[in-house]
């Protein structure tokens, strides 16, 4: 069974540009969550999508957005990039809603974004 | 949100058991205790989870205190591949808007 796949793995962008990251969940999983990980802040929740609807959202500015397609694949977009957006962006999928207590969530290997 | 407290770092020798503690004194009755680990340059990997009873799987064992205010992840025989940051997290319904909270975790070093 293929795991969570994220593309691209590495990318470098210039301040002010925008970026789109893609995530393909495990087959059959309907929930996709996104996280930002930095050395200083640790792992922080961005948002969760379930059946194409955003269910939960973390405390990030509106420059961070996402969507989920009918095949459960998801994309996240960051507009007007800032230097502080440099981070590892992780996608995770689960069978049902990610925050249902007993569900296991599976992470991808992440997309490393560097903003210069 | 219920929080967890873990030691910043621990060391172990290869082939020896490792006990990774986690305190969660404000845990609610519906919170599950989950453990994840993250190897360098990789995404977090699920290890184990439980609610009240001790749990075992092929990777580890989870021992949950009777009052559920603490738990211990047990790696029975540490290998070099177990060197990672281990996160203890609580997951459960909280006011209708749940947010997965990862703390700093415990960095486990395994010595050959």
Uncertain stretches of chain B: 94-98
Number of strands of chain B: 9
Question: What does the overall shape of chain B look like?
Answer: globular
Helical content of chain B, roughly?
A: under 10%
Beta-strand residue percentage of chain B:
35-45%
Cα(first) to Cα(last) distance of chain A is: 37 Å
What do the pLDDT scores of chain B average to?
88
Task: Bin the helical content of chain A.
Answer: under 10%
Secondary-structure class of chain B: mainly beta
Helix and strand pattern of chain A? EEEEEEEEEEE
Query: What is the H-and-E element order of chain B?
Result: EEEEEEEEE
Shape of chain A: globular
Query: What is the CA-atom radius of gyration of chain A, in angstroms?
Result: 13 Å
Protein model, in words:
- The complex is a heterodimer of chains A (116) and B (112).
- Chain A is mainly beta.
- Helices cover 0% and strands 52% of the residues of chain A.
- Chain A has strands at residues 5-7, 10-13, 19-24, 31-38, 42-50, 53-57, 64-68, 74-78, 87-94, 106-107, 111-115.
- In chain A, the strands form 2 sheets. In chain A, strands 2, 4, 5, 6, 9, 10 and 11 form a 7-stranded mixed beta sheet that branches. Chain A has a 4-stranded antiparallel beta sheet with strand order 1-3-8-7, with no helix packed on it.
- In chain A, a hairpin with a 2-residue loop joins β5 and β6.
- The radius of gyration of chain A is 13 Å and the shape is globular.
- Chain B has 112 residues and is an all-beta fold.
- In chain B, the strands form 2 sheets. Chain B has a 5-stranded mixed beta sheet with strand order 1-9-8-3-4, with no helix packed on it. A 4-stranded antiparallel beta sheet of chain B has the order 2-7-6-5, with no helix packed on it.
- The chains are: A mainly beta (116), B mainly beta (112).
- The interface between A and B is medium-sized, with 21 and 25 residues.
